[in-house]
Structure formats: structure tokens, C-alpha cells
Amino acid sequence: MAKALDKGVGAGPRIPAMTHLTDIITLPHGRPGTTRRLTIHRFGTGDGPKAYIQAGLHAGELPGLVVARHLLDHLTRLDAQGRVKGQVVLVPMANPIGLDQVLLGGHVGRFDLASGVNFNRAFADLADSVSAALRPGDLKADADANGRLIQRALATAAAALQPRTEADALRKLLLSHAVDADIVLDLHCDSEAVMHLYTTPACWPLGVADLAARLEAKAVFLADQSGGQPFDEVCSTPWDRLRARHGGPDTPIPVGCSAVTVELRGEADVDEGLAAADAAALIDHLAWRGIIDGPAPAVPDLYDLATPLAGVDRVRAPVGGVALYHVPLGASVRAGDHVATILDPATGDRHPCHARSDGLVWSRTQCRYAGPNDILLCIAGREVLVTSGPLLTA
Ligand SMILES: [Zn+2]
Q1: What separation in Å is there between the alpha carbon of 217 and the centre of ligand 1?
Q2: How does pLDDT run across 272-305, given as a tens digit for each residue?
Q3: Distance, CA 62 to ligand 1 centroid (Å)?
Q4: Is the Cβ–Cβ distance between 193 and 274 less than 8 Å?
Q5: CATH, range 310-380
């Protein structure tokens, strides 16, 4: 952390004022005698677009923690050079509750053990609060002004949330720092996976395609709402609902927040080289967005990369047993292909599992001990398979 070196006098080169601030916030509603703290880094003066980046909301997903460390180093250097034009908020370890959940030698970072609730679900949707707070005449014919008005209203609505548990207090804190951002990047990883992203159809063509190309993503999944109120969607989708309710030719409402869940491959892909490359790609993307002052090498548009989240073919185990995979990550398969087998080790019976869709095998479950109906692997199909219910797994 550093602040105010700008003397601005004398004959030497002008030293930029460093803007890096670090907030360390104690989570309220902890159990007596215990304390957990969230560390938040802020760069930039607040003039210009704001990016919010967090890692480790699912606390056991470590690739993001390494990428965030690299991002912190980049941002500290860029800040010292006066090159953070907008504002960047970085939360490198977004879940101190989950980081502390080690059970019988295994890390349980996905679900809050106190409630059983997934840490990346049950975030507050602020669209109704903002909608109720808008008065006639608040929205004008200026989309940018309307965007700033809604960002302020979202921040006010987040500040008014009244959490009653430590996990909900964490949700409020994270949301409060993100909900008025122009760009939100939530860094996760899958079990075993290639690089992939989740976002909304509204966000995809407005910058996320650039991010996907820079990260060399192999799949992007689009959904208006995937269910369960994950972090990225409570940042981006209120804008869609506010536009539907209040937008019009005389009151244009922009896609005010481009929110993306970035899945940094699989849980075991914890690697310094990968993390350095991913962080560099994210910095280039921020430069392309105008938040960092610097060149952003051009990348090709990959608009055909996106497929509907409802088109994901989740190949499941027909019975319990040992999962034997026949296709590697990144393989292109065709509908009907024999992609896995469940072996019942007691009887020797083998149960074949087939793809329903053509597409890329983008994830597999690390654990080879499958229960009946467990997901074994996922294929990025283009045809919609799911027409109701949540689109994400637990
Ligand atoms: Zn995750």
C-alpha cells in the first residue's frame, strides 16, 4: 500500500501519485471469539470506468488466487507508473469463511458448512429495490447519465441490505464493491476443465468476446438467468430487468455492467506459468477497455465460441461405480459417441455412457467414484437441452 508521493515540483521527472489503498474489513456476525477478515485492494482515482475482480469465492479453487497475486503485482507496478486510468478493485481471496473450512483433511470451499448453501448462490438481486427507488423524470434521454444514476442506485440498494449471518455479510460486502462496476470478473475453476467463461447474451458482444480471445477460452456459455442468483448475474442482469421496465427511446438504459465468471481450467491447474499468462491477458483486456493506460494487442473476434448454457450436455452415470473416461478434455465428440463407462467393480458389469450432443468436452469430474446420476463430463452443445429449472449444477 502506498499513497501520495506526488511532489510535482523541481526539475526531475514528475512522479505519479500512487493511488493504491488496502481495506481490511472484519466480517460481522461471526461466532463469539472468532474473527474473519476480507482484504480489498483499490487502485485509481475513480474517474473513468471501474473494474471489479475477485478470486476464490469458491475458496478451494486455487488457480484464481495465484492469478490474483499476479494481478496485484501488475496493478501495483502500473499504479506507480500512473497508468491506472479508471478504477480497479481487486479482492484476491474473496472467501475467508471457506478458506477456513478444512474437514477431515479435505478442503470444503464451495459450500458454507453452517448452512449448506453454495457460496456463489443467494446473492441479493437489487433490481426491484432500484426500480422502486426510481422517480418519474429521473431517467433522461442520455444513456450514460442513466447508467451512472443506476450505478449509484445499485450501490445505495446494496448498502441497505441487512445480513444476519457471516456468510450473508460476506455476500453483501462483495456485492457492495462490485455492483456499481462497469466490468466484473469472478475468477473460478472447474473440477477438470479447459478455460471457459459464463456470461449473459447481453454482455457477450460488448467486450466479453475480447476477454475470451485473450484468455484463449475454449468455450463460453450464455444464459439470461442460470438460476440461484450467482455473483456475476446479480451484477449484470438487474440492468436487463431495469431496461425492460423503465427503458425506452427517451430513457435508454445501457448494458451497464459486463459481468463474467472466468473458469480458470481445473482445480489441479495451479501453475505459476499459467497464472502469469492469465493475469497478463486480463491486464491486456483492462487496457483494451480503457481502464489501464497502455497498448492492448489486437485479438481476433471469436463470436462463434459462445453456446447456450441450456445446451450443455451433462453426461451422467446411469448407475454407481467407477468412472472410466474415453475422451480427453478438449475433444470434439458427436452425438451417440461412447464417451465414458461406469464399471461396477462388484459384478464386472460395464455401463456405457453416450453423448447426446455434438460438441467440445469442456469439463470432467475429477472424482472417478460416481454415484447414480452423478455428472461425469460436460459437452458444449449448440442445441438447447434444458427448458426448465436451474442451468448450473449445485
Ligand atoms: Zn467456482
Answers
A1: 16
A2: 999 999 999 999 999 999 999 999 988 988 888 9
A3: 10
A4: no
A5: 2.40.50.100
Question: Ligand 1 centre and the CA of 252: distance in Å?
Answer: 34
Find the 317 Cα to ligand 1 centroid distance in Å: 22
Give dist(CA 197, CA 306) in Å, integer: 9
Q: How far is the CA of 271 from the centre of ligand 1 (A)?
A: 17
- Ligand 1 center to 225 CA (angstroms): 17
The Cα–Cα gap between 64 and 57 comes to 9
Q: What is the pTM of this model?
A: 0.95
Q: 212 CA distance to ligand 1 centroid (A)?
A: 18
3-state secondary structure of 151: helix
The architecture that CATH gives domain 21-301 is 3-Layer(aba) Sandwich (3.40)
The ranges assigned to domains in the chain are 21-301, 310-380
Owner of C-alpha cell 506526488: 6
List beta partners, residue 90: 41, 53
